[in-house]
Write a structure and sequence with these properties.
Elements lengths: L1 H14 L6 H13 L3 E2 H7 L6 H13 L3 E5 L5 E5 L5 E5 L5 E4 L5 H12 L9 E4 L2 H7 L2
Parallel strand pairs: 4-6
Antiparallel strand pairs: 1-3, 2-3, 4-5
């Protein structure tokens, strides 16, 4: 599935007149493989410095501009990127700052509508993040 999605993205960019590059393909591969938000520094580190810092930033901003990835900041102020997808939430480790996507089984849209009704308030968007310790940091704490 992810390989097909990557091919669709690259084909769409080619149709728009943009050439593919090794670094662009490597970044897309990384996001589909890791499947969690990454900072530019994490992308650089995971791709073993296949390009300079400016190239990474430029490529991430290009992909963002083409609505392939999106960025966001948490309370630590670090800009993170992830593949653009439907609205979702994150779990954040307070120790190592690892961020992962989390899917909520309950229908948050219904809860949002109820909040609007009960508070006579029109919600435009929301954020919901969960903070705690990841499995690795819990193990270190318990030793």
């Amino acid at each position: 599935m992810n390989m097909e999605k990557k091919k669709e993205i690259l084909a769409s960019l080619k149709y728009q007149g943009f050439r593919s590059s090794l670094i662009r393909e490597a970044i897309l591969d990384l996001f589909f493989k890791i499947n969690r938000p990454l900072s530019c520094q994490e992308v650089q580190k995971l791709l073993k410095n296949k390009a300079n810092k400016t190239t990474f930033y430029r490529e991430l901003e290009f992909l963002k501009g083409k609505k392939i990835i999106e960025d966001f900041r948490l309370d630590d102020g670090i800009k993170r990127y992830e593949i653009l997808s439907k609205h979702h939430h994150h779990v954040i480790c307070l120790k190592c700052r690892k961020v992962e996507c989390v899917k909520l089984d309950k229908n948050i849209d219904e809860q949002e509508k109820e909040i609007e009704r009960n508070n006579n308030f029109k919600i435009i968007s929301h954020t919901l993040e969960f903070y705690g310790l990841c499995q690795k940091c819990q193990a270190v704490k318990n030793k």
